[in-house]
Amino acid sequence: MVRRWGPAGWTAVALLTVLAAVAIDPGLRHDVVFDSPVLFLISWGPMLLGGVVAWALVKAFGNRAELDRRIAAAMQTHPINRELGWLLLFLVGFVLCMGGLGTILHLFGEEIGADLAMSASLVSRLLFLFTLPLLVMDRSGVVLDGRGTAMPAIALKVEQPWRWLGLIPVALVLGLVGYIYLLVPGSGLPEPSFPLVGFVLAFALISVCEEIFFRGMVQTRLEIIMGPWGGIVATSILFSLMYAIVRPYDAVSQIPGDGLVYDLGLALLTYGTASLLYGYLWLCFRNTWLNVLLRIGIFFILTPPALKNGMM
């Protein structure tokens, strides 16, 4: 049934989810309606335009039908429902690990005078969003009979030239977002520094883990159950919920924090809208590297203020 809802139905679900959070939390409602409505609309513009350009490129030069057949063949022998259960369990484990490990490393960091927040972020993601999911997917047939290796080959070994056309919407989005957030306010790019380089490299690793987990694993399986747009929207909601919950312990999250409902609403308006584009790029090109490049670029543009000042 849900596979028949299509883009309009799932867009309505996404809007209702956001509106519910805005309606419940008066602080979020004030910020969205009175303080930053223009900023939100301007921020969403590049994402929407990037999606339209991706659609046009695939329509003109791509072969989505053949790519979809390869995805279907790669997933044919996988126990989808069981794997989704494991992936959701790992997502819960990631959240708990971020909270527990983040608290421990914060206390330890105070003793030695160092900020270890990024260490908790990296360890938690590498364990629960990358290593353990890959091991479980292996037990589902990835290694034992060789059939499951088709999915990693599609996502990471991109041989068809048209699947690199996604670099065009990626460059367009980054150019527009950079213009809005850097050139217009006049804040400029952050000064090069060792902390900045280390943070960007760490975020690159975080992006690889998250894009393989959320797009390559979760969204691909949800698409089979809920349809393409259902998979994109449901994954974006999960993505936003994760960032809203781990915000106090996450070194890369830029949600200020004012209660779970506020954080979730703000995450849906920022991380959620970005995730819709990540999901659509994945649907169009099935190229993990495009998503990683886009996320690194957006992070560099929206670099945390402490790093722009050369401080951790």
What does the model show?
The chain has 312 residues and is mostly helical. The chain has one domain. Helix content is 79%, strand content 0%. The chain is built from 13 helices and no strands. Helix 6 packs parallel to helix 9 and helix 9 crosses helix 10. The longest helix is centred in the first third of the chain and has 33 residues.
Essential attributes:
312 residues; mainly alpha; 13 helices; 0% strand
Brief characterization of the structure:
The protein is mainly α and 312 residues long.
User: What is the number of E strands?
Assistant: 0
Task: Please indicate the count of domains.
Answer: 1
Work out the radius of gyration: 19 Å
The percentage helix is over 70%
How is this fold's topology laid out?
Blueprint: H1 6-24, H2 26-35, H3 37-61, H4 64-75, H5 80-112, H6 117-142, H7 150-156, H8 167-183, H9 194-226, H10 228-246, H11 260-285, H12 288-301, H13 305-308
Helix pairs in contact: 1-2, 1-10, 1-11, 3-8, 3-11, 5-6, 5-9, 6-9, 8-12, 9-10, 9-11, 9-12, 10-11, 11-12
